[in-house]
Amino acid sequence: xxxxxxxxxxxxxxxxxxxxxxxxxxxxxxxxxxxxxxxxxxxxxxxxxxxxxxxxxxxxxxxxxxxxxxxxxxxxxxxxxxxxxxxxxxxxxxxxxxxxxxxxxxxxxxxxxxxxxxxxxxxxxxxxxxxxxxxxxxxxxxxxxxxxxxxxxxxxxxxxxxxxxxxxxxxxxxxxxxxxxxxxxxxxxxxxxxxxxxxxxxxxxxxxxxxxxxxxxxxxxxxxxxxxxxxxxxxxxxxxxxxxxxxxxxxxxxxxxxxxxxxxxxxxxxxxxxxxxxxxxxxxxxxxxxxxxxxxxxxxxxxxxxxxxxxxxxxxxxxxxxxxxxxxxxxxxxxxxxxxxxxxxxxxxxxxxxxxxxxxxxxxxxxxxxxxxxxxxxxxxxxxxxxxxxxxxxxxxxxxxxxxxxxxxxxxxxxxxxxxxxxxxxxxxxxxxxxxxxxxxxxxxxxxxxxxxxxxxxxxxxxxxxxxxxxxxxxxxxx
Amino acid sequence: xxxxxxxxxxxxxxxxxxxxxxxxxxxxxxxxxxxxxxxxxxxxxxxxxxxxxxxxxxxxxxxxxxxxxxxxxxxxxxxxxxxxxxxxxxxxxxxxxxxxxxxxxxxxxxxxxxxxxxxxxxxxxxxxxxxxxxxxxxxxxxxxxxxxxxxxxxxxxxxxxxxxxxxxxxxxxxxxxxxxxxxxxxxxxxxxxxxxxxxxxxxxxxxxxxxxxxxxxxxxxxxxxxxxxxxxxxxxxxxxxxxxxxxxxxxxxxxxxxxxxxxxxxxxxxxxxxxxxxxxxxxxxxxxxxxxxxxxxxxxxxxxxxxxxxxxxxxxxxxxxxxxxxxxxxxxxxxxxxxxxxxxxxxxxxxxxxxxxxxxxxxxxxxxxxxxxxxxxxxxxxxxxxxxxxxxxxxxxxxxxxxxxxxxxxxxxxxxxxxxxxxxxxxxxxxxxxxxxxxxxxxxxxxxxxxxxxxxxxxxxxxxxxxxxxxxxxxxxxx
Lengths: 479, 479
Fold this sequence. Notes:
The structure is a homodimer.
Chain A: H1 3-9, H2 18-28, E1 32-34, E2 41-43, H3 45-64, E3 68-69, E4 75-77, H4 78-81, H5 85-91, E5 96-101, E6 104-112, H6 117-127, E7 136-145, E8 159-169, H7 172-193, E9 199-202, E10 214-221, E11 227-237, H8 239-243, E12 248-249, E13 255-256, E14 259-266, H9 268-277, E15 294-298, H10 306-319, E16 324-326, H11 333-342, E17 347-351, H12 353-357, E18 360-365, E19 371-375, H13 379-404, E20 406-408, H14 412-421, E21 425-430, H15 434-444, E22 447-450, E23 471-476
Parallel strand pairs in A: 3-7, 15-16, 15-17, 20-21
Antiparallel strand pairs in A: 1-2, 4-6, 5-6, 7-8, 8-14, 9-10, 10-11, 11-14, 12-13, 17-18, 18-19, 21-23, 22-23
């Protein structure tokens, strides 16, 4: 038995038990460790480096469009949290409460932020006075706490890392424009960097964020056909501005309430990456956010010239901006192959005495297993080309899965039967009635993912009640 | 009265009331806003951008030396916090306790991390088994909470941002080497980027971090002569490894306890920057970490060609890697001058029709007020040179203040008299007795800052008891 086979046996087959496969990959690829508090996990260097790369891309996009980072406090007084009715109703059951500072009981309980709308609103109340102060395009990178009953690595933590943008604008139009522009930013992140195809659109009222007027989402499909909400962007109208008494003097010298948005993505994206791309050998990381894009495994390291050549290649690739690493440890090549397969490194470069003599090296693709003989001359360009190709093909593969697992349904029985045959997304017409949405959920367990921007009239009547229906909705099981 | 004068009158004079001056600058320069929770402040975009620049520099240095970032949970179970006796004794009086998740009381209280030694140790207990697993060079960027009685912006928050490095090594020598190497990294950050001269050395036992074997510190002097501990690096020996049962199989096949370090700097550095460099017109930011290094103020904006020329300059400077911004608002030039003086932007570039005709512009230095006529041709190089010069001169000015406010003392009366004449650092010989250290503090209010690496034998006997003394210690009042 080779080292590679041994290692792969450590993880459950993806098609046999997707949930167990996921848990195995998360642990074996060295992404997380558990802490003594349920749902509070340790992001090990490999997982955190993925998050840093996502941060770098997204933070660059935010700053490019005029957003600024701030830091709001971790703790929210109970009275402040209660200022907006729907928000407190949505979050009260799941916040963690601080009651003591040192040995003393606090006069007012403080919650650990589950989200920071209230803090931003209070700050805007203090700092927005004139049209000159608008817009404020703020974002923060932080962790939030939600005391969930059931937890799962990356997908549902009690504490998770995210970014939360909170903006305030003079007009409703401007705020809506911002909400949608951010949704597009999230879609770009998912498709261009994470190789995850998305469906974009507003949520139904029932799925809307507490206190928001409209919630837009980017929805992704996992390999097993279930949906994952990858990011949301909320338009608040002036609901929060009124609750928090935020007012400004406009150019026409009248007092007005401004209009607000908020939006966020979290480390849950890492869960999405694992579940969209991974396979029975472990993780497959999209190269543009991978901590290591290529790993060099020298073959017959002790032979003359091999190590020097490998080091030289590493330097060349790093200089060309490729995130290359080299494994010079005394483990066997087989062990190393399996290790970097498990970790999902896009390309493996093998170089031994024979390759060296031919001024060639061997490149193995993680996603396809394809083996290529590549000339050392001009290697940088070829690696860059291959990394782009891997990205494109990962995206294409995920698109095919999405297409293969999306079906149309014109009635509930059909919807249920098709779902039972193959888990996936149902495209169905909906009358807009919340009662129908609930009935669909009760009968099929599916929930409305979103009302996609790209509409198609697949029938004239609601999939549930048969009344005339104008909107096509994507329904799905969800993480 | 010009706009500039009006604005300056808003802040107290630095030499009249340093504490009030500090509070004024922090608020008027737009660095912070207060939240509803005492000691938990909002870092506004300008302050957060300074922190981001510090992070970027430091994170680059850490990664360059093989450190990796991780994320540990915010919450620590009470039983875990209690595992190391000295640590819990040091921190128990000032931690915030979470007692409820949603409506339910927790079976065990959780504290919000005041520092994360215990979490790292538990993780190392789980993941360090063999010499192959060592060293682990981990760092995290996060916020911590300490329930302080008295608080002050940047200097003493109940919640503050910091980085905390935690490393584990096979040998004591290696761990000590790491502790000192990180101290040098902090010194480099302070001097090369923040223009803050430092004194480096170990702390006395009394000033050592709870649970540490040795604490090294970089100490800075503020403009008013008080000391600020800018960063600390702790060597733990195997104290924590034993308390947390961290063991590894060494190359010789025996089980051993590894050796650990931890080290950190926080947003308190921003307080240091303000108090070292600021003056009666407001903030002065060292250019290498300033969000904006140069601000362009177009003069007679409506005149033909002015705005285009200003925009062109901005593009040129940005392209050259200079953080330039431009103020095109309808405020008067006088208002703008005062605004960017308050915000401490190193250079102001004025350009009007006359300058344009001469292919020149005016540069005004924030630190000296000096006005320079600079040719537009070759502007990028000249600006880069000026920014370096500003940095060097800020550092030099701070060094002069440090020298002018440092005095030698051979007895307690002399020490007290010199301090009363001029607040500053005392260099004094110390016998090593904790009782003397306490007496010095009681009689002069000064505390031992550190035992500097650069020693000088200024007397033969202890400043307090007169016994033979070998060590020169720096004593000072502190923030």
